[in-house]
Amino acid sequence: MCKLCDEATAQGRPAPVHLHANPAPAAAVESAPSSPPRRNFLRASAVAGASAGLTLAACGGGEAVAHSQATPPPAGVGEPARRTLIRGGAVMSMDPAVGNFATGDVLLEGRRIVAVGANLSASGAAVIEAAGMVVMPGFVDTHHHQFETALRSFLADGVLLPDGRPDTAYNYYETILQKFSTVYRPQDVYINELYGSLSQIDAGVTTVMDVSQIHHSPEHSDAAIEALRAAGRRAVFGYFEGQGPRTKYPQDARRIRSQWFSSSDQLLSMVMGGEIYLPGYEAAWEIGRELNLPIALHVVGTFGMQPTFDKLGAAGWFGPDNIFIHMTGMSEAGWRYAADAGAHVSLAVPIEMQMRHGTPPTQTALDLGMQPSLSTDVECTMTADMFTQMRSVLTLQRMFANEKALRGESYPRLLTSHDAIRFATIEGARGLKLEARTGSLTPGKEADIILLDATALNVAPLNHVPGAVVTLMERSNVSTVLVAGQIRKWRGELLGFDLPKLRRELEASRDHLFDAAGIARDLFRA
C-alpha cells in the first residue's frame, strides 16, 4: 500500500482509489456476472479482472476482505436468498414514503430491496461500505436510438431536416435514416446495441427504452433483442419500423411478443412503435393494443404531425398506454387530449434544442399536470448520459421562468435538482409502466441501484445531495451499478466484458456503415 492507504487504514476509513499508478493485473473475478445466451453475431469474452472494490466485510462477525486494487465484489450478490447490505451512504430513495437518510443503509435479498433505513441489522449478509457515496435508484432513459452507437458525434452540428442551406446538408432524416440506417446488417445491430447498452450502464442508466428504427428483417429485430439481453440491464425493446423488402413490421410483433416476451419475470419488456407520420400506422396501433403493449411514437411538429395528432386525439385514440416523445409544436388542443388521456411525455431537451425539433415543452407538460421523463435520443448528436439531460431540463425551465421574473411577470415554480432527478428515475419508470419494479429505493422493488462518488475531486465536500448529483456529477462519479441485485459495474469498472474487443468490433461496424452508405469519414469536418 501507499502512504495514503496506510493512513486511511490506521484511521478506520476506506483507503482511497489510486489514480496515480496503474494497478497490477487482477485475479479472475469470482462473481463476475455471466452474459445470457446469444447468437454468434459477436462473442463478448468475460473480463479477467476488475478494479478496486468498495471495502467489503462479512456481516455478523466475519473477517473483512483486505482492501486492494484487486478486491472483487462479494460473491453471489443478486442470487436468491443472498443478503447484501449497502451500508453508510447518503441514501436518496425517491420514494416519499421511505424518505432520505444522511447516513443510511439499503438491505437486499436476492434481486429485491427488503429494507431502507439507518443502522439496519443484517446478520450474515455481505456488506458494501458506501461511506462517501450517494446511494440512489438507477437512471431511467425513456428513449434512446442505440443502433446509432457507431455513428457517435457524426451529426454533432446537424439538424432534423434540411432547409436548403449548406450547413444542413448533413441532417438526421436524410443522412442517418435514409443512408446509414439502410445498410445495417444484423451483426451491426448487435454490436451497436450491446456497446451502447454497456456505455449507459457505465453512466448509471439501469433502464432504457430502445427506439431503434432498424427492423429491416426478423434477423435485425432478433439481433437487437439478443444484444439487450446480453448487456444484463433492464430494457424496453421498442419495435419500430424498418426498411426494405424483408421488413415484417408491424405484423412480426406477434412473433416477437410470443418468442421473446412471453414471461413478465425478466429484465426485458416490449413497446410497440406507432409513428403517425408513416403510412399504415393504424395497423401498428391495432396490433400493439391487441398484444397489450404500450404504444410509443415521436410527436414532432417539424414533420407536420400536428393535424394528424389532433385528429387522433379528438377521435379518442389516446390512452394511458401512450408514450409521446418530444411533443414539440403541438396545439393546445392536442396537449389537452394527451393530458386527459393520461398519456406520458418523454423529453430529450438538449437534442430538441440542438436539432430543431422545437422548444422543449417542459412547462406545457407541467402546467397540465403531466410529469415528464427524460431521454437521451441519439448519440450521433449528443451524449447518452442522464446528467446532461437533468442539467438541461433544469436550466432551460429556469431560464424561461427567470426571464419572466426579471420582467416583473408572474412566473411558474422553479424546477429543483430533486425534480430533475425525479424525471430521470421514478417518472421514467412510470412512463414505461415499470414503476412496480424500479425507479425508487422502495422495499419490494428490484435492486436497480447506483452508488455515486461524492468524495471525488469534482464534488467534495458534499453539502446537498440532489444538487451535487445534478449540478456537479457526471459519468466518472458512477462508482458501482446494480441491476436487479446483480453488480454490473464495480468500483469504476464494468464487469463481464472484454471492452477493447467490443470496441474493435464496433469500429469495424462503423467502417462498414460509412463504406456502404458512401459517406467519407472526415475527422475534422467543418
The percent of residues in helical segments reads 25-40%
Could you say which overall geometry the principal axes of the C-alpha atoms support?
A: globular
- Gyration radius (Cα, Å) is 23 Å
The total count of strands amounts to 18
Indicate the proportion of strand residues: 15-25%
The largest sheet, given as strand count, sense and whether it forms a barrel, is: 10 strands, mixed
Alpha-carbon distance between the two ends: 49 Å
Our count of helices gives 15
Task: Return residue spans where pLDDT drops below 50 for at least 5 consecutive residues.
Answer: 1-69
Q: Helix/strand/pairing class, anyone? A: alpha/beta
**How confident overall, as mean pLDDT?**
90
Structure description:
It is a single chain. The chain has helices at residues 3-10, 172-180, 186-202, 218-231, 253-260, 281-290, 306-314, 332-341, 349-354, 362-367, 386-406, 417-424, 426-431, 465-471, 499-517; strands spanning 56-58, 83-92, 100-109, 112-117, 126-129, 133-137, 139-144, 205-212, 234-239, 268-273, 295-300, 322-328, 344-347, 373-374, 449-453, 478-483, 486-490, 493-494. With 526 residues, the protein is an alpha/beta fold. Strands 1, 2, 3, 4, 5, 6, 15, 16, 17 and 18 form a 10-stranded mixed sheet that branches. Strand 2 (83-92) and strand 3 form a beta hairpin. The longest helix has 21 residues, at 386-406. The termini are far apart.
